[in-house]
Fold this protein.
Amino acid sequence: MRHLLLLIVIIVINIKFSFAQKNDSLVSNKVVQKKHPILTDKFYFNAGLFLPSKTVKAALNGSSENDLINFTEAFNFNQQETTFAGNFSWRFARKWHLGTEYFSVKNSNRWSIEEELNWEDVTYRVGASLEAGFRINMYRIFIGHLISTGQKHEFGGGLGVHAMDIRTFIEGEGYLDDALEASFERRTIDLTAPLPNIGVWYYFAPSDKWALTTRIDWFALTIGEYSGSLWNIAPGIKYQIFDSLGLSLNYRYFRTTVKLDKRNFDGRLDLIFQGPLFTISGNF
């Protein structure tokens, strides 16, 4: 009987020890399960190549839709180009983000126009050999707050500003007002347009290697002589190669309209850039 009791005690101890080991293993596995760095790391940046197709329409001292000149079509601009793009995110508090972004697009060409163009007070007639160009530098700063977060996801929203440094021009032989003879004329739009916006983002990371991301910025406002609208949509997928290095493939759709109506300047710009964005990401 004494031996039987001793055997039962040993079996019970072994069972308890076995369960304790399993529980420790489960806890241990739960502890070592890693989140994707985009959900945890304080600093995150991307740098790479943006390959946008583009539509640039502009009017100077004109107010109707018919005054808009499609630079891409009228001057046979390249439909696509490769340009640098980069962004940076700082998780400066547990639920707060600060983000910045930059890209630049430019194009110019000399072309004999196939339709008459009116640009401010100058008329460029069919067949005129003109040089035209544009350059847009886009800067974005955004402050966001986490709304929901978990082991595999993050959702947040906030406020930001897109600041665009814009320059477009047309030059060549044209007719000024009702002049009978052509003269060399150059007309330019050169302005900086700050567009405040609201935005949201969502990250879903099923593992510590893969993450799906999306971001949407929106703005539409008219105040007196100034009006503008903006859509910035950026879905993407990320793969983490090493702890602090990854690759990303995104699609960027950026559309904005800016209009100023002043005594000495009446201009409008419609811009669309869309295409793939390939980046290398770093985090720490």
Observations:
- The longest helix spans residues 2-32.
- The chain is about 10% helix and 65% strand.
- Residues 158 and 245 are 27 Å apart (CA to CA).
